[in-house]
Amino acid sequence: MFLPNARKKTHDLALLHEECELNYRRLLRVLPKTRQVGSTAWLFADPGDQGSVELRVVEVTRYTSLVQISAARSGPIWLDDIDIKVRLYRDAQMVEVVEWNRDRTIPFVLSQASAMYARDEKWQWNLFLSELLSHGLRCSSRQLKAPL
What we know:
By secondary structure, the protein is α+β, with helices and mostly antiparallel strands. The protein contains two helices and six strands. The chain has one domain.
């Protein structure tokens, strides 16, 4: 049976906002000092270790902070370095990915098909951030509870 609209996805802005609100809470658990430029936190390992992810506040304004999340490649050669910038909105209590590997300004849904981007690119970026922060928090809590 052929369904002409079966492959067409709908993107719910309310779900994206909910994910951005959850990411705000996750980010504050990992990096509580978001109002200080240069404030740094590490996920998964000690600073500088292979496989560690660094979170650093690079800009602070009245209502927002810009956080850079980076990790050097620690896997296969085809796997790129992680270099994400996220904007933390204190008044709205949301975090949004604003730059991915030096790529900027991707709208919520692309109006035209592109060979370089999926139609839900911004959604995918924010889901990746969600998974990264969630996994980092799980690993950190497991390390804290481990017996010495």
